[in-house]
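Readers of this paper often ask what the protein records in our data store actually look like. Such a record has a labelled line for the sequence and another for the backbone structure tokens. Nothing more is needed to write down the fold, since each code stands for a local backbone conformation. The record that follows is passed on verbatim for readers who wish to inspect the format.
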Amino acid sequence: MADSPESLAALQQQFISALFNPPGTVTCPEIAGEGGLDAEQRLGIYRNSAQAIHREHLKVVYPVCGQLLGEAFFSQLATYYSRHFPPASAFLSDYGGQLAEVIVEHEKLQPWRWVADIAQLEWARHYAWHRPNQPASDWGRLAGMDAQQQAGLRFALPASATLIRSRYAIHQVWSAHQQGSEQAFADIVLEQGECVLVWREGRQVFQQPLDEKVCSFLHYAEQGKTLAEIVALQGADVSGVLARCVAQSWLVLKDD
């Protein structure tokens, strides 16, 4: 038994390391054999339980990917992920963000690499739901700024937002799966690229396909470029695009 906070923390770290590494690679001497099971077998009970929880979590986070790849194959993919990607956080909601990378690298999924972009979209929705609320910016103070001050403004996407630029019709595919209609799938041109913004307002997650002007504006804002730099890059009057982004709560002032 640990007799100090320090030794308890060390024991917990040792147990976690043994739990989320392949069997036999890391030992936890504090675990002893009992009831006909040796230490590794007892640890395996906890390891299997943790991996099962992670697999079920992935199925909940990625329902469309599960439908696209099939239940059996997605279950294998989730098992692989749970064994090779230990959690980096104590919160289950933080787990699973690298599934898109696994899909891209999976040999059998090379013809299905576009599903990785669907995984990005589903993770963005999950991510948005679990981000903290963020106060809106005070856009009214722009009226008191001169032209030079406005030109130097920098923006950011809300804390819950993710901007995804895909070569595929990811929003259409996702939406078709919500409808469950064969006709909805028949009308999709998969190679028709889309830019999609996912964000949360209140207790609801939204996703919106964007036109190129808005997508580029948000992309440059996300990079931290000033308003003057964005105007120079887009080569057009961006006041209408900025007004739309502000009205839709797609931007915050970076110094807020």
Notes: The chain is about 50% helix and 10% strand. The chain has a mean pLDDT of 86. The CA atoms of residues 38 and 195 lie 53 Å apart.
